[in-house]
């Protein structure tokens, strides 16, 4: 029988991200990072898989540590990885801050973009 773990408090990394979100979003210019296997990269609108977490796009993070995970994780298949740093002027941009919503909104966004196919699911029964 599996144990259900109820999480009432965020871990240290989650807490840090939650605390830094308002400061980050209030700045006119923010520093963001992108990790991947390419040494040279130009952010290009409309690229990427439509089944990614938030659809097509050039994914970035305010966390250099997360970008390192993207760069040297399974995405690069063990090859050399790179972290790219960008300065983004946010003046005039509409930014969706998922920290303002509960986890159901985040899950709904993921399911919508990943096009969850329930016909291909594996059925697991408890005995």
Helix content: 25-40%
Strand order of the largest sheet: 1-2
Question: What share of the residues does DSSP label as strand, in percent?
Answer: 5-15%
Q: Order of SSEs, N→C?
A: HEHEH
Distance between the termini: 10 Å
Q: Helix segment count?
A: 3
Q: Tally of extended strands?
A: 2
Number of domains: 1
- What gyration radius follows from the Cα positions, in whole Å? 18 Å
Average the pLDDT over all residues and give the rounded result: 75
Low-confidence stretches: none
Shape by Cα distribution: globular
Class derived from helix and strand content: alpha+beta
Biggest pleated-sheet summary: 2 strands, antiparallel
Structure, described:
This protein has 127 residues and is of the alpha+beta class. The chain has one domain (12-116). It is 28% helix and 13% strand. It is built from 3 helices and 2 strands. It has helices spanning 12-26, 64-72, 103-114, and strands at 29-36, 82-89. The protein has a two-stranded antiparallel sheet with strand order 1-2. The relative contact order is 0.19. The mean pLDDT is 75.
Describe the structure concisely for a colleague:
With 127 residues, this protein is α+β, with helices and mostly antiparallel strands. The protein has 3 helices and 2 strands, in the order αβαβα.
SSE topology:
Blueprint: H1 12-26, E1 29-36, H2 64-72, E2 82-89, H3 103-114
Antiparallel strand pairs: 1-2
Features:
alpha+beta, two-stranded antiparallel sheet, globular
């Amino acid at each position: 029988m599996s144990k259900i773990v109820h999480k009432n408090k965020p871990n240290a990394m989650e807490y840090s991200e939650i605390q830094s979100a308002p400061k980050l979003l209030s700045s006119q210019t923010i520093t963001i990072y992108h990790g991947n296997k390419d040494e040279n990269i130009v952010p290009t609108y409309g690229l990427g898989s439509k089944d990614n977490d938030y659809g097509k796009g050039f994914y970035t993070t305010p966390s250099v540590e997360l970008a390192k995970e993207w760069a040297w994780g399974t995405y690069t298949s063990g090859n050399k990885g790179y972290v790219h740093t960008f300065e983004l002027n946010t003046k005039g941009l509409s930014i969706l801050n998922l920290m303002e919503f509960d986890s159901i909104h985040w899950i709904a966004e993921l399911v919508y973009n990943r096009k969850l196919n329930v016909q291909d699911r594996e059925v697991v029964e408890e005995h």
